[in-house]
Task: inverse folding
């Protein structure tokens, strides 16, 4: 499944394909309507929020120092990315192009302050 | 900013760097605590949910047929990915490795049904 | 619609009935499945989060000092409560009894520290 | 704590006071910034969404028929209401007046269809 040319490190399109094959092998596609996937995405995002909800800003910057919390945060990041890629799969959206275009727009919308 | 070797198509690490440079050029890092970024991520995920909240499952599968809705969905997908990458940046998480490891775990947790 | 005995101030059951009549008069009940209402509830909750997402804890405590922000927060609080009551309506849940029972459970789960 | 005049049934202001006393007795107020409370509110709302995320609209209408799911939904409804009331407490918002005013505005914004 992993590209030996890239040293075994998967890229985003490879992970998106792997997720699609994972769902297909388990016959989960009927559950993967766009409506359900955006709900699942928001639930996973809120599970990230839950980790941080009572922390001060300073404490929130130190979460990776505790191995158990670091593992939990990393796991939730993976869940958010998984549902986002599955949503892109069923809708035919290229997430890399979408973000590239969005940054282009934001650069025009929020010009960087220049030198004095 | 884009890698000419890859035909101009950005990959995820390149977009993550571009977002980090974008925030740094605007001096936005003080706002980008992990706690704030997960809140922003959940808000963007809910903006996706908002598009789908009154749709039937069938209608939700057709959202890309309307150009205005397709553009809105694509834009929100980009926003979710942007905040996820910025969160990974400040926490030092590799999102591709995190997801790869998560799929490995899920393959053990949910074995695919074999042939009869 | 308001109870003249209570000086015109509505109570929660009266508001729940008013919302049910409002939806019925507009033939919105087909959209008000429990699944759709919980999505709408989460979207409104995130609209509250959006107001606070870049604020420090201290700034977040002062939001009501700005009249425009105070009005926006109050409006989103109303939206969250509206969808919560509409969810209770379609599911037959009494929100006041549910919360009363929950506080009873929490008092056993988190005993208050006694005097020294 | 419960008003004997009302047959022991609490109203919303009584529950809000009970929650405030509960938090004060445990010295939890420093955690109850508006920013933290809206995060907690959104997390609880998403826990409701999680119950419904893979259900069809029809299945979602039947959740109260299963006692375990009914208890879970009721518990999450209580959690959402608890954080909403605690937010109102720290911000000085009257949730009943806020909702009453919102319905007034919505009646003007979405006029009910009249007789033919």
Result:
């Amino acid at each position: 499944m992993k590209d030996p040319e890239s040293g075994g490190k998967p890229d985003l399109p490879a992970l998106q394909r792997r997720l699609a094959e994972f769902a297909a092998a388990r016959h989960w596609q009927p559950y993967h309507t766009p409506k359900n996937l955006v709900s699942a995405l928001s639930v996973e995002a809120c599970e990230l929020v839950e980790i941080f909800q009572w922390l001060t800003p300073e404490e929130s910057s130190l979460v990776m120092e505790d191995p158990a919390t670091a593992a939990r945060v990393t796991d939730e990041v993976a869940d958010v990315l998984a549902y986002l890629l599955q949503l892109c799969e069923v809708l035919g959206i290229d997430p890399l192009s979408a973000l590239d275009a969005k940054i282009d727009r934001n650069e025009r919308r929020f010009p960087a302050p220049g030198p004095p």
